[in-house]
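During data preparation, a discrete fold description was generated, and the record follows.
___
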Amino acid sequence: MDEVEPAKGGLARRILAFPLTAMILEFLAVSLIAGLAGRAIQSVIPRGGPAYTLGALVTVCIAAGAYLLGRRWLERSGNDEMPLSLMPRELSQGLVLGAMLFTVMTAIVALLGGFAIERVNGAGAIWIMLAMAISSGVVEELLFRAILLRHIEAMLGTWAALAITSLLFGAAHLANPGASLFAAFAIAMEAGILLGAAYLWKRRLWLPIGIHAAWNFTQGFVFSIPVSGSALEPGLFVTTRKGPEWLTGGAFGLEASVIAMLVATGAGLYLLVNVTRQGGIRPPMWVRR
């Protein structure tokens, strides 16, 4: 991501291109367009089946297109965050990392007696789970990393942007079923830091999108665990959780487990070390000026 430069043109153009204005307009536009597109597609496609997943793909393509068009119009910027040439490699890396992190965390909880696989259920809910993972992975990363983190960083610097967006990401989950203040804090730590660091490391979206989507898919489909409190149809395995909430996450799911917070936050901090080493920490705008 390039340093913010004074916008060329008249006063109106400079106001529109200012990070705070651009952030508000882009966030509202992507939220509205993604919501309307999702509802329109779901109204004509029955829930479940390959068409349902295809509908999610169409929705996220529309949302991504709206974001890129907004950046070009408001900021006069090209597509440096979602280049198609890098998608196969970086998206694959993110998918592997997200699935691996949640599997490792689940294995630790199982070793501590908080999780068990009862039987194989089958792949009946796979299309619904894929649609959920694709939608959440792309739309939430557009909103929280590409828009909020990027623009807040341009104004307040990297550390403030990472802290603010992590807290906002956790707070956004407070309305979910089974949510608690600790669950929101856990989401802020494990997902806010990890996904923010993944974006800052490459300054592109494919890696955090892959991590986010694979984490949710592995959680909801492979292990049949509520995704941020939302319980969906049983996935590949029928599983049980038992024990204290600090271990199992309670009704919210394993994302509210202390184990998940430690594993994912540790991975996020590792990525942040790499960001720091490569000179990716940026100061507030008044320091640059």
Observations:
- The longest helix spans residues 126-156.
- Confidence is low (pLDDT under 50) at residues 1-7.
